[in-house]
Structure formats: structure tokens, C-alpha cells
Amino acid sequence: MAEAIVVDDLVKTYPDVQAVDHVSFRVPAGTVFAFLGPNGAGKTTTTEILEGLRARTGGAVEVLGLDPWSEGRPLHRQIGVIPQDFRFFEKIRPREAIEYYGTLFGTRPDPAALLARVQLTDKAESRFDTLSGGQKQKLGLALSLVNDPKVCFLDEPTTGLDPQARRGIWEVIRGLRREGRTVFLTTHYLEEAEILADRVAIIHHGRIVADGSPAEIIQRLGGPARLRIDAGEDVASFLRARFPNEIHWQAGRVEIVLQTREDAIAILDALRASGLAWVSFSTERDTLEDVFVRLVGQMDDGVLKSANGRAPEVPA
Ligand SMILES: Nc1ncnc2c1ncn2[C@@H]1O[C@H](COP(=O)(O)OP(=O)(O)O)[C@@H](O)[C@H]1O
Ligand SMILES: [Mg+2]
To answer: pLDDT of the chain along its 316 residues, tens only?
Structure first.
């Protein structure tokens, strides 16, 4: 099957809010798809509709060729799910938890093998409430693999984890992809999406504002964000007097925030004509995070102008 997930014109309306507003995207089988967006964007709502846990208001959804809402039974045998804020009985131990999940699915999982896959072997007999946040998430990952799923849904699996624990989860996700599984990941960490995902969709206020591979999105919507010139403060003063751009100087380096690609050319031309000394220059392209912050910012400006009044939450 070419597409593991197909979403066409999906709508979910709650009494107060249109949480998902005509969203469409496709996830090719065997790839990692990151669904990115600030808090309240509609990620969990979309994810739970795909998992068959919430009904949709409108649109069409298929996971592995099945409608998650009307064909949940055959679907649930083939997908793995870790809900956002995964929790479990405080006293259960990871080995027992895996055996328990196995009975729910009518399978006989191998706890040692699953715990090894998520690097949790040494915690097999530790109580759940003694595990760190990262270890709990890893147990969640192990549990989501009990039924050998074709598609894994991970809703913010790394939120709140320290950098090392996040890297541990990334390794497991890379392993899932190597095994040919499809991974649907939600996150608000941009660099995580840039590192892990084949394709991303950025959702904000229930609408997709950009989608494609991280490189395509940056290519399409990013620009050379900064021009750096290794030069003295005299160069910074010279440029400030002639250009409206934001210009910083620190420790022998001038940094100019570019508004358009052409800015860099005009600035370098003026520098050459000035005869001032400089050592080297470089431009730095936008990252996915730069693009995201700008898109979300532009949308929120629009939203605020239309008198919503309340500033939406964005990730720190
Ligand atoms: N069960 C619900 N009832 C009413 N509103 C909800 C419900 N779940 C989520 N919402 C609202 O829908 C919007 C999207 O929420 P959610 O899908 O949880 O976003 P995210 O996962 O991106 O943070 C938010 O405005 C949220 O308050
Ligand atoms: Mg959520």
C-alpha cells in the first residue's frame, strides 16, 4: 500500500472551537510523518480521529485503507498508540505491563525483547512510579509495539524530556522506520521534526500552514535569514547608517538580519565600495524553526486583527 494514512478535508468542531479546519495530508507507508504545531493547534484531535478514538465532524480519513471510526476493530489490531501524557498503574512493573497489554491484544509478547528495543532492560522489574519521564515514555513505546503494528501513533512522545532522554526516543523512532513501519509523530520541537521526519505538516489554529519535507518547506518559505561578516565595528556603523536592517556587532562579527535575498547583495556591494576592511562573510539559511515562528507569528497577527483578542499559546 502506497499511502498508510489519507486525510481529506477533515473537520472537527467542538462547541466552542473548530479544532480541525479542513485539513488534508497523506502519509506514505514506511515513512516518518511529523505533525507540528503549538499547543491547541489541533494535533491531538487529529491524531485521535486517526486512531478511531474520536468521531469527526466532516471529511474522509483512511488508515491502512480502513475508516478508523467505522472499522476500528480491524484497524486497532494493526496500529500502535501512545497517548499524550501516557500514564499507567503506579505499582505495575514494565515486564508485567507488557504481559498485561499482550493479554488485551490476545498475543504473547516477549517482554525482554521489547524492553531491549527501547533500552529499558535494566528497569524490567522497577515500579512504574519510580521510572523517569523518559523511561515512562520508553515503556509506552514498548507497549505500543506489543501487537507488532504497521502504523505507530506517538503524540508528543518527547515533550518535557531532557535532551538525552529525547535522543533515546529518537533512536527508537529511527528503529521503527528501519523496520518498515509508518510513524505518525506529533511534536512542537521543530528540530526533532527536522531530524526525524521524511515529511512534516505544520498545523496552527486547526489549519495546515505548510507541508512537505523539511528541506522543501525551508526552500519554499525560508530565506537566507542572516548575513554574517567578519569585520570590525566600523563596518557595522557604516551599514547601520545606510540600511534599515537589524544589524548587530559582537566579537569581530557583524550580523545582519535579512528581509529579502537581495538585501545581502546590496549590502556586500556597499561594503566593497566603502573600501572598509573585512575578512569573510557567509549567509545562514532559515531553519524549519525560523519558518515556523514566522508563519505562526504572521497568522497570529491576522487572528489578533480579526479581534479574537486572546494570544494563542506558542511553544517556548
Ligand atoms: N474534548 C474537547 N472538547 C472541547 N474542546 C476541545 C476538546 N479537545 C480539544 N479541544 C480544543 O480543541 C483545540 C485543539 O486541541 P488539541 O487537538 O488538543 O490541540 P494540540 O494537541 O495541538 O495541543 C483546542 O482549542 C482545545 O481546547
Ligand atoms: Mg496535544
So the answer is: 699 999 999 999 999 999 999 999 999 999 999 999 989 999 999 999 999 999 999 999 999 999 999 999 999 999 999 877 778 888 999 999 999 989 988 889 999 999 999 999 999 999 999 999 889 989 999 999 999 999 999 999 998 888 988 998 999 999 999 999 999 999 988 889 999 999 999 999 999 999 999 989 988 888 777 899 999 999 999 999 999 999 999 999 999 998 887 899 999 999 999 999 999 999 888 888 888 888 888 877 765 443 333 344 444 4
Q: Report the separation in Å between the CA atom of 241 and the middle of ligand 2, taken as the mean of its atom positions.
A: 47
178 and 229 part of one domain: no
Of ligand 1's listed atoms, the one at least distance from the Cα of 12 is: 12
- Counting the structural domains of the chain, the total is 2
The burial class, CB within 10 Å (0-12 / 13-18 / 19+), for 75 is buried
CA 42 to ligand 1: nearest atom? 17
Q: Is 181 helix (H, G, I), strand (E, B) or coil?
A: coil
Residue type, 20: V
- Of 213, 247, 263, the residue at which a domain comes to its end is 213
| Residues 209 and 227 reside in one and the same domain | no
Q: What's the one-letter identity of residue 145?
A: L
**Quick check: is 290 in a domain?**
no
CA 18 to ligand 2 center in whole angstroms: 15
